[in-house]
Amino acid sequence: MSSSLSGLPAADRCHISFFGCINAGKSSLVNAITNQKVSVVSEIKGTTTDPVRKTMEILPLGPVVIIDTAGLDDYSELGKLRIEKTNNILYLTDIAILVVDILKGKTQEDEKLIKNFEKRNIPYIVVYNKSDLTDYVPILKENEIIVSSKENKNINELKEKIAKLVKAQEKEKFIVKDKLKEKDIVILCIPIDEAAPKGRLILPQQLTVREILDANAVAICVQDTELKSTIESLNKKPKLVITDSQVFEKIKNIVPNDILLTSFSILFANYKGNLEELVKGAKKISQLKDNDTILISEGCTHHRQCNDIGTIKFPKWLKEFTKKELKFEFSSGMDFTENPENYSLIIHCGGCMLNEREMQNRIYAAKNASIPIVNYGIAIAYMNGILKRSLEIFPEFLDILQ
Q1: Between β-strands 95-101 and 62-68, what pairing exists: parallel, antiparallel or unpaired?
Q2: Residue 297 forms part of a structural domain
Q3: Which range marks the domain in which residue 159 is found?
Q4: Whether residues 156 and 199 fall in one domain
């Protein structure tokens, strides 16, 4: 899905984050680039407290998410919390802009941040701001530029530099479009229960329907209660059934074996995560022992309901499947875990509200700690004995299950 498309969800946009010390002019630069008052600008040090996000379209950058962060040299007690939140932004940053006060030059904090960019393979630009206050011109590297956000000097040149990095980040990827031919029939099984949002489809469902239409294929949306009669009523055999993972157990016997079956969660694992690593993680479910601790993590924050999948259903399913006494911890939103090694297994949601880099970083953190990680859909398919079947749409990953 190309990031040049307008109306692109935030999770699929390039995330451009602005870092730097207090009063380096980050917020002023953000406002100059966006031509909007995205961030509050003041002479008072530390005006930006929590990261400020703005989803927008900027020429020539296209659809992006702009993130303004707090200063990295605030040593107060409150400042430590601000810096922690700023560092968390690194996990979802596709392109980093380091803003340096040209009067002070690069600080120790700036140099540490550059090393962090390079360690995480984050493309970055160093921007020397406030050039209107001095005639000094530092020797510039290829990824550095001098600007004045106050006088709008070199702002267009900076945008062109950023645009080149944005373009380099773009890659053609699909949820399901590349698996379809014109006029293929795809049935989307979407149960409407207490967890379904009122009056709308959730983001993975919306995006998947759009890709099916873009492939000039046919999308049929039904509830699980109408799935059997819908399949039987068609004159042409469907190519694929895509389901909410929670009803795998119910529909696995409804969909004939000669029709491909998978879930939204599995499709998204391939789309923005690392399907191979998540499939490997599923095997750990059968190896869990008494008193093992499992982290169940979700990428978004939402109101927990009485039958919540993460906090209620998964603990129940895992105990029933493993017949073990297990312990559970939970996280949501940006709070993933700083210590994945504390867990025997991490079970993550589909990650539809996370951008690809953040999802990849979470998988990498688990892998680096040698802790298996699996997502909701893969785990549910595994416990229902149909993981191999649900991966037939991705035959390149079937050998992992041998």
Answers
A1: unpaired
A2: no
A3: 10-169
A4: no
- Kindly report the CATH number assigned to the domain that includes residue 45: 3.40.50.300
Tell me the three state secondary structure of residue 294.
strand
Does residue 381 lie in a domain region?
no
- Same domain flag for 53 and 127: yes
d(CA 214, CA 5): 13
pLDDT along the chain (402 residues), means of 10: 56 93 92 76 49 87 91 66 80 95 94 93 96 93 96 96 91 93 97 75 92 98 96 97 94 95 95 90 97 94 68 95 97 88 96 90 94 96 96 92 79
Which element (helix H / strand E) includes 163? helix 155-169
CB-CB neighbours of 137 under 10 Å: 10
Among residues 356, 358, 382, which one has the least CA distance to residue 268?
A: 356
What is the total count of domains within the chain?
2
- 229/115 same-domain check: no
Residue 147, SS3 per DSSP: coil
pLDDT at 233: 97
Domain shared by 160 and 207, yes or no = no
Residue 282 CA to residue 345 CA, distance in Å, equals 9
Residues 115, 85, single domain; the answer is yes
Q: Which residues contact 30 (CB under 8 A, 6 or more apart)?
A: 18, 38, 39, 52, 66, 68
| Paired strand residues for 243 | 189, 263
Kindly report whether the peptide bond that precedes residue 123 is cis, defined as omega within 30 degrees of 0: no
- Residue 357 is which amino acid? R
Rounded distance between C-alpha atoms, residue 365 and residue 337, angstroms: 9
How many Å apart are CA 215 and CA 196, to the nearest integer? 27
Strand 14-20 relative to strand 185-189: parallel, antiparallel, unpaired?
unpaired
The reported pLDDT for the residue numbered 44 is: 44
Ordered strands of the 373-375 beta sheet:
327-332, 293-298, 345-348, 373-375
Q: Are residues 31 and 162 in the same domain?
A: yes
| Predicted pLDDT at 322 | 97
How far apart are the C-alpha atoms of 188 and 389, rounded to whole Å?
17
What span, in angstroms and rounded, lies between the C-alpha atoms of 313 and 296? 11
- Say if 332 falls within a structural domain: no
Q: Tokens 């990095």 identify what position?
A: 165
Whether residue 152 sits in one domain with residue 39: yes
- In a domain, residue 247? The reply is yes
